Amino acid sequence: MATKKSVGDLKEADLKGKKVFVRVDLNVPLDDNFNITDDTRIRAAVPTIKYLMGHGSKVILSSHLGRPKGVTPKYSLKPLVPRLSELLGVEVKMANDCIGEEVEKMVAALPDGGVLLLENVRFYKEEEKNDPEFAKKLASLADLYVNDAFGTAHRAHASTEGVAKYLKPSVAGFLMQKELDYLVGAVANPKKPFAAIVGGSKVSTKIGVIESLLAKVDILILGGGMMFTFYKAQGHAVGSSLVEEDKLDLATSLLEKAKAKGVSLLLPTDVVVADKFAADANSKVVPASGIPDGWMGLDIGPDSIKTFSESLDTTQTIIWNGPMGVFEFEKFAAGTEAVAKKLAELSGKGVTTIIGGGDSVAAVEKAGLADKMSHISTGGGASLELLEGKQLPGVLALNDA
Ligand code: AMP
């Protein structure tokens, strides 16, 4: 993917007095009383907005919230205004719509450095359909476009892709830029040795990632529920562990591919097994080669943690996607926590550590280690697609640097 022009490339002359349409991801969780329960996404959007304010732009913010079907008051962005205003240090104005005359008037009334938040862009079904007429209406509000919504960059929607056709320049925000620097840049040109750790429940959802990373890494560590499909493919007893019977041949071929490419592929040598899928299940550690009947593997064992850690000690770049076990149950979280701790420790020694979205991000945050990593992706689906080597429509639409 070509390097994209960034908002940081735009200076005062490009920005002063200009109306800037900024697609951000403010899709934060709200409780029943519309209190924000996690403001991470709002905080992540701040650097780009402040940069534009500081250079005298009129900032028009667009986001979705939830999955509304038409205008749904429950999914209004209004509850976000106080927190956004507090973080930006200005009184953010709120529009009742995202297109139309009223919105145009509010944009016209914005002072340089002012911020207007448009109402949920998904109140229009045209947004997700990437309707060109709707995209044109959104674009007509502004002079230029900044996309900082990495979490929706894998979707070709009107506000993430369509508007870019009508606004020049169209550039990446700082958050988007950082995601691309790490998930594309660091992965394409890693400091070697380069290791990938892939876990999660099923091999079927990670095939693309594993195949793409096999072409780049020196070490591939596999854990999580998917490991049992690999064990079974090698003829081991897996008890009642999660297995994808239709993916046994694929597992064998991935093992062969790794060998042919000279990638050191590590599977756990021991497993924590449980007598049922529950937080209070009885558990014990057994060798990976023989899981007893009636038991299911829910985490990697202590010997695996040791082997994985030693192997990671030799690396300069690590990318991690997917937990090592059912970390939602305290009893089966040790493997995932150990990997999180190891990566935090190695980050401190100058190793580039990238947490590639989804449940591994939740695990790192739960362990309180988020600020230790080089990069934590804010997008689940988007980061997975990037790691699979796919092009994201929301990124492709931006101008090249
Ligand atoms: P994914 O979304 O594919 O990254 O998978 C994350 C989910 O995998 C988490 O909810 C984990 O609980 C689950 N998982 C991890 N290890 C296992 C396992 N051994 N058996 C069943 N589920 C697992």
UniProtKB/TrEMBL annotation:
Organism ancestry: Eukaryota, Viridiplantae, Streptophyta, Embryophyta, Tracheophyta
HAMAP family xref list: Phosphoglyc_kinase (MF_00145)
A GO CC term assigned to this protein in UniProt: cytosol
Residue positions binding substrate: D25, L26, N27, H64, L65, G66, R67
Binding sites annotated in the UniProt record for (2R)-3-phosphoglycerate: R41, R122, R155
Enzymatic reactions: (2R)-3-phosphoglycerate + ATP = (2R)-3-phospho-glyceroyl phosphate + ADP
Entries under InterPro entries matching the protein: Phosphoglycerate_kinase, Phosphoglycerate_kinase_CS, Phosphoglycerate_kinase_N, Phosphoglycerate_kinase_sf
Keywords in alphabetical order: ATP-binding, Kinase, Magnesium, Nucleotide-binding, Transferase
GO annotation (BP), single: glycolytic process
UniProt xrefs under Pfam families: PGK
Enzyme Commission no: 2.7.2.3
PROSITE patterns per record: PGLYCERATE_KINASE (PS00111)
CDD domains tied to this protein: Phosphoglycerate_kinase
Assembly, per entry: Monomer.
Sites where the protein binds ATP: K206, E328, G357, G358, D359, S360
Molecular function GO labels: ADP binding; ATP binding; phosphoglycerate kinase activity
Family: Belongs to the phosphoglycerate kinase family.
Name the UniProt record assigns to this protein: Phosphoglycerate kinase
Cofactor: Mg(2+)
